[in-house]
Amino acid sequence: MTDMQDQHIASAYDRDLEAIQALIMKMGGLVEDAITNAARALETRDDEMAEAVRRGDAAVDRLEEQINEEVARVIALRAPTARDLRVVLSVLKISSNLERIGDYAKNLAKRASVLTQMQPVGDSASTLRRMAQQVRAMLKDALDAYVQRDEALALDVRDRDVEVDQMYNNIFRAFITHMMEDPRNITACMHLHFIAKNTERMGDHVTSIADQVVYLTTGSMPDESRQKKDRTPFETHGAVR
Amino acid sequence: MNDMRITERAVDLSETKISARNVQVFYGDTHAIKDVSVDIADKTVTAFIGPSGCGKSTFLRCINRMNDTIDTARVTGDILIDGEDIYDRRVDPVQLRAKVGMVFQKPNPFPKSIYDNVAYGPRIHGLARNKVELDEIVERSLRRGAIWDEVKDRLDAPGTGLSGGQQQRLCIARAVATEPEILLMDEPCSALDPIATAQVEELIDELRRNYSVVIVTHSMQQAARVSQKTAFFHLGHLVEYGETGQIFTTPRDPRTESYITGRIG
Predict the structure, then answer these.
(1) How many folded domains does chain A comprise?
(2) CATH label of the domain that carries residue B31
(3) Alpha helical stretches, state H, A116-150
(4) Residue B4: inside a domain, yes or no?
(5) Helix, coil or strand: residue B250
(6) Residue B181: which domain range?
(7) Prediction ipTM score
(8) What is the DSSP string of A175-226?
(9) Does the residue A210 lie in any domain?
(10) B132 touches chain A (CB under 8 A)
């Protein structure tokens, strides 16, 4: 017993923990696809693809329920401690984050459907797709960091959320400009702004997943030293003097 | 590390009761305890955990010099209780054991009445001047052992006629009858069913108000439930010693982690 071992004496315990983590990966895969497809549906004005994303969210919700049940069973039957405890606690939080990201993707798809009926506003759809791609790439890395217990990669994901926040700030200003230029853009811009805001929130949930990887590997949460780059609460754009 | 203690488990106010310095124990050629130094707090339950043969029971038995009774055993280093070396020549082991009570794995009531089981220690140590005082000690001890209500109407019945859980609580009552300051418990629940175990654990938590309790247990869950501090022994070493919540959530030593999570090592 001189080194840390990976295997429990009770091998069924290992199988339980692996099964739960496999469910997280499955859920993560579905959510990654939902982000990609929702953003693509928005850019290509593809109502069918948007509809598929909306229908697909039910599977994500079912996985979250299943994970909650399995985690409750492991806690009741195995009384996990130390890093085993951190595995089940982090699984609970990550599944909740993924479920929220899935909801945002579904909402993005809904608004994409509505927007197919309206005039496009500038190149906002492609900017939003880039933002969604950034979030999706961060999610992929956060989940890879989880599987590989890679603290450095998780910290990198946290840092990259700053870029998402900056993209949101820029697009926020662009929408204001579009709306000031032509009030007929307002309805579309309101929908587009919600899409941008929801994508920015997805980034926050991905960051939270990365935090869980740090907690899992080190036993404590990362320092809250990251600068907040969302400046929009302070924007006035000349409207208020 | 974040403070994860709930107020129930707060231990910071307790003073050191037992202080061990560089303790080594040999059984003949076998080096059973290797340079263990530890401070055990007063009014606190301290659990010793570790795999079989790790030395936790051996170390426990140093605290009331039970190892003196084994011819081949040799103890070096210092063990201080309230700052006094208990291995000093002038210390009488019998007096020491009145101050440091012990409860064993198997309930071992004397083949005497319930009353006499508890009265035995106070009698030989002359703690009661008359029958009234002795009656008081017996009742107080049985109450502290959380068994008074179950036996008060049959104090003359043999202690061996009680159930296993009751016998163990009788043994705890017997141990506290000599007004000890420290209670050592060597797997006190391993022969008991879960209900009797829960009753003894509840009792241990109450005893904490008056005593420094040191418990050796094979059940990690029991250590987690009853103790405020946990010490993990392995191959004669004290590997890690800390607040119980910390040991069970974020142990610092990989050997502790392997053991408490049930991994092969």
Answers:
(1) 1
(2) 3.40.50.300
(3) 124-148
(4) no
(5) coil
(6) 14-260
(7) 0.73
(8) HHHHHHH-GGGHHHHHHHHHHHHHHHHHHHHHHHHHHHHHHHHHSSPPPS-P
(9) yes
(10) no
Residue B128 lies in a domain: yes
Cross-chain residue pair A8–B261, CB shorter than 8 Å: yes
Cα–Cα dist A172/A102, whole Å: 23
pLDDT tens per residue, range A118-160: 888 888 888 999 999 999 999 999 999 999 999 999 999 999 9
Q: Does B205 touch chain A (CB under 8 A)?
A: no
- Across the interface, of A2, A3, A13, the residue whose CB is closest to B262 is A13
The CATH number of residue A150's host domain is: 1.20.58.220
Q: Report, as ranges of residue numbers, the positions in chain A whose pLDDT lies below 70.
A: 1-5, 225-231, 234-241
Q: What is the pLDDT along chain B (265 residues), one digit of tens a residue?
A: 344 445 455 555 578 999 999 999 999 999 999 999 999 999 999 999 999 999 999 999 999 999 888 889 999 999 999 999 999 999 999 999 989 999 999 999 999 999 999 999 999 999 999 999 999 999 999 998 999 999 999 999 999 999 999 999 999 999 999 999 999 999 999 888 888 899 899 999 989 998 999 999 999 999 999 999 999 999 999 999 999 999 999 999 999 999 999 986 5
Q: Are A34 and A59 in contact (CB under 8 A)?
A: no
Q: Is A41 domain-assigned?
A: yes
CA distances from B221 to A80, B11, B70, B201, B242 (A): 10, 19, 31, 11, 16
Q: Which domain holds residue A62?
A: 11-229
Phi, psi of A106 (to 5 degrees): -65, -40
Identify whether B153 is part of a domain: yes
Flag whether A198 is in a domain.
Answer: yes
**Domain presence at residue B163:** yes
Number of structural domains (chain B) is 1
Contacts of B254 in chain A (CB under 8 A): 3-4
Is residue A4 a part of any domain in this protein? no
